[in-house]
Write a structure and sequence with these properties.
By secondary structure, the protein is of the alpha/beta class. It contains nine helices and ten strands. A six-stranded mixed β-sheet has the order 5-4-3-6-7-10, sandwiched between helices. Strands 1-2 form a two-stranded antiparallel sheet. Helix 4 links the parallel strand 3 and strand 4.
Length: 318
């Protein structure tokens, strides 16, 4: 067994003990809610009950029997999930001992293991300068180990300029023909225009945008004179973080970017889960569980999901 394969085994084993084991107790029977299948076959008709999805009402039968009836479906249990990972140079940043790349890999490992333990399939597309690698969707623990190994060893090719996330999402649309659960993991540091591609992807698939970020990207402390480098372009510049005016301008620019991101996700009609480098991974997955429950209630005619919480204002689970 090579060193990198052993590393993947150790990482998965650690996550199984520290995260997945905890989630088993917290999620209980929520796996079906979290990872619903997408193929539906008509199974029966029954009388309408409170909180049934009104879209399933059979109006012909309702008119004939003078009482509302709904169609009941047998759901295809198998879920195909795809992880679209932005592994461009900007995800190598992290200020608290964990960078965005490592956080993304751990999130993928946990979600993949939860899915494959129930017979579902997972695959991945890796983005650097376009689609640089495709990992076909398969099931089983061995496949999860292979997925971790590939992600950990992948380094994006040198790009001529900033990341074009829109081009990656358009390529993903062509490569995933069957309706799937799609996670887009990125810090969304990209040339503009990716929102339309994300919206197009969401028209075919159930899309969850997993936004990766580091707290230092939101606000800078007073660290004196620093040399900062743009990881996408290599451009370097000295900045004086002791200057309160500079820190205020930095925070204002970060807040404006948050507003733009939030509006882009809303226009694309996708749920968004934020994932910070100082996050507790189990708590992040539980936030994802809450997000899926809200989506399920929405499908049944309930309120709108509230998956997006601006960084610094993440809701704490009770």
């Amino acid at each position: 067994m090579s060193r990198s394969v052993r590393s993947a085994e150790l990482l998965l084993r650690r996550l199984e003990w520290t995260v997945i084991r905890r989630l088993d107790g917290a999620l209980h029977g929520d796996y079906r809610t979290l990872f619903r299948g997408y193929g539906l076959d008509l199974a029966d008709l029954r009388e309408y009950q409170y909180q049934d999805d009104i879209r399933h009402i059979d109006w012909n039968v309702t008119a004939r029997l003078q009482s509302p009836y709904v169609r009941v479906f047998n759901e295809e249990r198998e879920v195909s999930a795809w992880f679209l990972l932005d592994l461009s140079p900007s995800v190598d940043f992290g200020s608290a001992g964990v960078n965005k790349r490592a956080l993304a890999i751990e999130f993928v490992a946990v979600l993949s293991r939860l899915l494959t333990r129930h017979g579902n399939r997972v695959g991945a597309l890796l983005c650097g300068d376009g689609v640089e690698a495709t990992i076909p969707a398969k099931s089983g623990r061995r496949h999860v180990l292979e997925l971790i190994h590939r992600l950990d060893g992948h380094r994006a090719a040198a790009a001529a300029g900033p990341t074009d996330l829109g081009a990656f999402l358009r390529a993903a649309f062509a490569l995933i023909p069957r309706r799937s659960l799609v996670f887009v993991l990125s810090d969304f540091i990209s040339v503009p225009g990716w929102g339309a591609a994300l919206s197009h992807l969401a028209q075919r698939h159930e899309v969850i945008a997993v936004r990766l970020y580091d707290p230092l990207e939101m606000a800078l402390p007073d660290l004196g004179l620093l040399l900062m480098e743009d990881p996408e372009t290599g451009e370097q510049q000295f900045v004086d973080t002791a200057d309160t005016g500079f820190r205020a301008r930095f925070a204002a620019a970060a807040a404006a970017r948050e507003t733009e991101l939030r509006e882009s996700f809303q226009r694309a009609s996708v749920d968004a889960l934020e994932l910070a480098t100082d996050d507790v991974l189990a708590e992040a997955v539980l936030r994802f569980a809450d997000l899926r429950k809200q989506r399920s209630r929405l499908a049944a005619g309930g309120g709108l999901p509230t998956g997006w919480h601006p960084p610094g204002a993440r809701q704490q689970r009770q």
